[in-house]
Amino acid sequence: MAPRFTVNHAVAVLGCLLAIAVYMLMNKFGVPSRIAWGSAILSILVVAIFWSSINLGPSDEDDE
Q1: How far is 5 from 28, CA to CA, in rounded Å?
Q2: Distances, alpha carbon 25 to alpha carbons 2, 19, 34, 37, 44, in Å
């Protein structure tokens, strides 16, 4: 049985693509390497925090 590709996987892939894009953009504009890496890691953390808050938020199904 093949593993299923869920919405969580899609969000993780998009978060990684965002981090790569941020890092490449920072390098293109000549930002120091430490700041470029830090902003890439920060973008991954922002996506993870946002998606965790969506998953852990109140659900309407439990109200019944």
Answers
A1: 33
A2: 36, 10, 14, 11, 15
Give per-residue pLDDT as tens, 10-63.
999 999 999 999 999 999 999 999 999 999 999 999 999 999 888 887 766 655
Q: Which of 34, 14, 13 is closest to 23 using CA atoms?
A: 34
Provide the pLDDT for residue 15.
94
Q: What are phi and psi of 30, to 5 degrees?
A: 80, 25
Q: How far apart are CA 54 and CA 10, in angstroms?
A: 14
User: How many residues in total does the chain contain?
Assistant: 64
Closest CA to 22 of 52, 48, 44: 44
Q: What is the pLDDT of residue 62?
A: 55
